[in-house]
Specification:
By secondary structure, this protein is mainly beta. It is built from three helices and 29 strands.
């Protein structure tokens, strides 16, 4: 009886199930899917309906707005895109500026500042207060004479334009004596010294006006210089000398001699040489000499010119001597003759001369010009030399009255021996040996 009741209950259960509205079918997993809505579980690989909403899924759909940004196939146009991704879109405002593909027009991209541009230049300094870039230029210390100090700054600034990346032309300061308002590259003489002719001299030196040559070793050697080759059609060498009486012998004592080793210099002007006594009067001579070359019928020839010995007197005082190369053009417009002449003057009077017709080129010796000595012959001048001047024109063509020598527009070189042997015109290097100075002046 009990078994019977159980069977009735089971049958009633299945009956109720069979009567349910729209019953669903149970389909085997290997049954082809017809797309029926009745199927609640389907693993068919041919299913075309997207079913994945898991952003952590490795096969995630990159078009999904909830896409995983760590996915290597991530869509770079996604606003939540990872900016560290190499395929990152540089137009994205959240773009990483450290990314090599970064767009430099991006407002978040770093820019080079003016200070960085400035410091990229060599030797520059950035002035934050004025927002300017500059470098320091030093004044020419070598041009500042001894016994002087700066009368202002010893350096100055030159500015750099960071926009054009060029140096703005700044002031060009030349080292000069500070006789005005102090400024960069000015100097002034230190206490106890006085400015004169480009140098700072002591008060004692201010009284010096001539160089003393001892007749044994004294000389001044001037380094070889193109200006001293006398490559001019006309020129003048002149000096004020006071030759010691015991120095006037039968030797030609040099005052100016171009050359140190050869027995034949490029040019030469001597002091007085004793000739002899006639009717109780002593007679002397001066000598001028030039070695030159010239063209003749397509050939280069050499020659020398030396005025004939001059017989003159000498009083053992200050004397002006000059050697002048002149040019004379004669004839008419159809036929002209050019004659060159070497003229020797003593105290403003012509004492001898020598013509030579060929257009001369003075011999060039790459050797020093020597004042007061013939080093190849061991001959030295004894006495005083007040000043020496070389000009690139014929200063005298007839008798004249000698004056104190000074620099003018025609001057090639000038030595005044006022306490030193510095050349006062072209800055030539002079080396004195055993030279002292005197206040005995012309």
């Amino acid at each position: 009886m009990k078994l019977f009741k159980v069977l009735i209950i089971v049958c009633l259960f299945f009956f109720l199930i069979g009567c349910e509205e729209n019953p669903k079918r149970l389909v085997p997993v290997d049954e082809p899917d017809s797309g029926s809505a009745e199927i609640v579980d389907d693993s068919d690989v041919n299913d075309t309906v997207a079913d994945d909403t898991d952003p952590t899924n490795p096969t995630d759909d990159p078009t999904n707005p909830t896409d995983d940004p760590t996915n290597p196939t991530d869509d770079p146009t996604n606003p939540t895109d990872d900016p560290t991704n190499p395929t990152d879109d540089p137009t994205n405002p959240t773009d990483d500026p450290t990314n090599p593909t970064d767009d430099p027009t991006n407002p978040t991209d770093p820019t080079v500042t003016d200070e960085e541009k400035c410091l990229a230049e060599t030797g520059t300094t950035w002035d934050a207060s004025s927002q300017s870039c500059y470098r320091i230029e030093n004044c020419d210390t070598a041009a500042k004479p001894a016994n002087s100090e700066w009368n202002g700054d010893s350096s100055y600034k030159v500015y750099y334009d960071v926009d054009t990346e060029t140096w703005v032309p700044g002031p060009v300061y030349e080292t000069q004596y500070g006789d005005g308002e102090p400024q960069p590259c000015q100097y002034k003489c230190t206490t106890g010294y006085v400015y004169a002719n480009g140098v700072c001299k002591s008060q004692a030196q201010m009284n010096y006006c001539s160089a003393v040559f001892n007749g044994e070793s004294s000389r001044v050697e001037v380094d070889s210089n193109d200006a001293l080759n006398l490559a001019y059609e006309t020129w003048t060498i002149e000096a004020w000398i006071k030759q010691a009486e015991e120095d006037i012998t039968n030797s030609n004592i040099p005052i100016v001699r171009k050359g140190t080793t050869s027995s034949t210099p490029a040019y030469l002007l001597t002091g007085y040489k004793f000739l002899g006594t006639y009717n109780d009067t002593n007679y002397y001579t001066l000598m001028g000499y030039v070695g030159y070359s010239y063209k003749q019928q397509y050939q280069t020839k050499t020659g020398t010119v030396q005025p004939s010995p001059s017989y003159t007197t000498y009083s053992y005082g200050w004397s002006h001597i000059a050697l002048v190369n002149t040019k004379v053009v004669s004839g008419n417009q159809w036929q002209q003759t050019t004659t060159y002449k070497l003229v020797l003057f003593q105290d403003g009077h012509q004492v001898s001369s020598k013509d030579y017709a060929a257009a001369p080129t003075i011999n060039t010796l790459n050797e020093a010009l020597v004042i007061g000595a013939n080093l190849s012959g061991g001959i030295y001048f004894k006495g005083l030399i007040d000043s020496i001047k070389i000009s690139d024109t014929a200063k005298y063509t007839e008798d004249f009255t000698p004056a104190v020598l000074s620099v003018d527009d025609d001057t090639v070189a000038f030595w005044d021996f006022s306490g030193n042997t510095n050349e006062s015109k072209a800055g030539m290097e002079s080396t004195p040996t055993d030279i002292t100075y005197s206040s005995d002046c012309r």
